[in-house]
Amino acid sequence: MTNTVRAEVITIGDEILFGQITDTNTAWIGTELTNIGVRVVRKTSVGDQQDAILQSLQEAHQRADIIIITGGLGPTKDDITKKTLCTYFGVGMVRNEIALALVTGFFEKRGREMTDLNRGQADLPANATYMQNDWGTAPGMWFEHEGRVYVSLPGVPFEMKHLMSNRILPKLTEHFKTPIIKHKMIRTVGIGESFLAERIEAWEDALPDHIKLAYLPSFGGVKLRLTATGDDNALLDQELAEQVAKVMPLIEKNVYGFDSDEIENVVGKLLVEKNLTLSVAESCTGGYVSAQITKVPGSSAYFWGSVVSYSNSVKISQLGVQPETLDQFGAVSEETIRQMAEGVRKTLGTNVGIATSGIAGPGGGTPEKPVGTIWIACATDQRTVTRLLKLGQYRDQNIQLTTMYVLNMLREELINQ
């Protein structure tokens, strides 16, 4: 098997550490490197301090074959990446005439005056191979040093992605003979990590050495990621498919999708396949269920609308919940959630209605119905199913978990029909 090629990604910028911007670059770079068979071993964020950057570079040199650096390439004094790279490599700065011509053309095309700071964008460390940035003035740079490849890229995401896709990734695949790394994701819902691990323990123990399993807990379930490494793309696909087929009988009831599937996409496809329409009645989730459903392009083909019935008066007037039901059992009850799901289905004229009602918190709980007590329901022309959820104390978590569980209830009912 081909030797593993390791990479480290270093993001530079105080604004990342201060939380002023979200670092999306490292996730994207990690995915793209994995796709060409490079294993990312670490991601590091450092501020705009030369000592910290130098230390990160020295440490990365010990761990990785490829060091990808993003950020700090602008024209202002706080952008110190180029000067720091000169110090690290022990070289001076030289003006690159190709880069200067491109920077000059960039400003001329836009009718803007170019300053000395802008011209400085064409000054590169003497040992750099210039990698042309077609979408901006910050240069891309490639270095080869003591058996390692260093790549410096602008921090602006669309500039970085263009450079990486069109210049860096092709050059990396030429420079290194990398193995193939393939991932297969199994998405589960309604089962905890420890219960899942216990259920599939024998299967996991029997996995071949070149296929690794990772548990990725998420709201309402766990993602199982299989990672296979080898030299034969078709063989790896076949082996991953075989492993999925072996484990599915153990967990099939909890699997809602694979790879990039999200539960709202899965239920949308089922509704389209069965030519069914959906409406939603929400209380404690406050419209979050509907928002997730309408995230899916084309959801207007099956989603007709919702009623956010936060008050009892709206439950009565818009959903047909009986006042005596609310008086006797309360808004958070099986009797009420049943009438909410059936009522929204009738009011909006859809094939299916789902509903949520509960105490999301942090206040409003009682000894009989503490915070996290939530009822969900799904009504079709065949039957209405209900379920009591006993969640935690945190409002946002409760809203997201309830949404996941009611959509999974919908999925199960659609499959059973």
UniProtKB/TrEMBL annotation:
Pfam families: CinA, CinA_KH, MoCF_biosynth. Residues 8-175 form the MoaB/Mog domain. InterPro entries: CinA, CinA-like_C, CinA_C, CinA_KH, Competence-induced_CinA, MoaB/Mog-like_dom_sf, MoaB/Mog_dom. It comes from the Bacteria. PANTHER family: NICOTINAMIDE-NUCLEOTIDE AMIDOHYDROLASE PNCC, NMN AMIDOHYDROLASE-LIKE PROTEIN YFAY. Belongs to the CinA family. HAMAP family: CinA_B (MF_00226_B). This is CinA-like protein. It comes from Spirosoma pollinicola.
